[in-house]
Amino acid sequence: MRIVFISPKADATTDTHNPDATLRGKSLRNFEIGSRFHLSDATRASGGTIYDPKSGNTYRGQMVVDGDLLRLCGYVGFSLFGRTEIWHRVHASYVSCHN
Fold first, then answer.
1. CATH number at 35-97
2. d(Cα 65, Cα 45) in Å, to the nearest integer?
3. The dihedral of CA 39, 37, 2, 13: what is its sign?
4. Is the dihedral of CA 90, 9, 61, 51 positive or negative?
5. Cβ(53)–Cβ(30) under 8 Å?
6. How far apart are CA 56 and CA 2, in angstroms?
7. Hey, where are the domains in the chain?
8. CA distance 8 to 58
9. pTM here?
10. pLDDT in tens, the chain (99 residues)
11. 20 to 30 A from 24, CA-CA: which of 16, 32, 53, 74?
12. How far is residue 51's CA from residue 11's CA, in Å, rounded to a whole number?
């Protein structure tokens, strides 16, 4: 899972909170934030990790696709104690016009 577009209104466009100081100037555009997920079924994936560029922390994660919504749950230990964010799909026509 990668970030493909960053709003001009975003607080940061680089990975300013990365624990590795040498990577803090790296652009968040095209940045991989999710990895090692395994599909449970056509709409669910789990067992991966999610990197939060706002904090520089990496969490265990799971995700569910619901139409144009992606529900990302990051957690430490058990998903019951995690936090879920809902992301909205950006359609290709929007991305190509705003690169």
1. 2.40.128.520
2. 9
3. positive
4. positive
5. no
6. 16
7. 35-97
8. 25
9. 0.77
10. 888 778 888 888 999 999 999 999 999 998 999 999 999 999 999 999 999 998 999 999 999 999 999 999 999 987 778 899 998 887 766 555 555
11. 74
12. 17
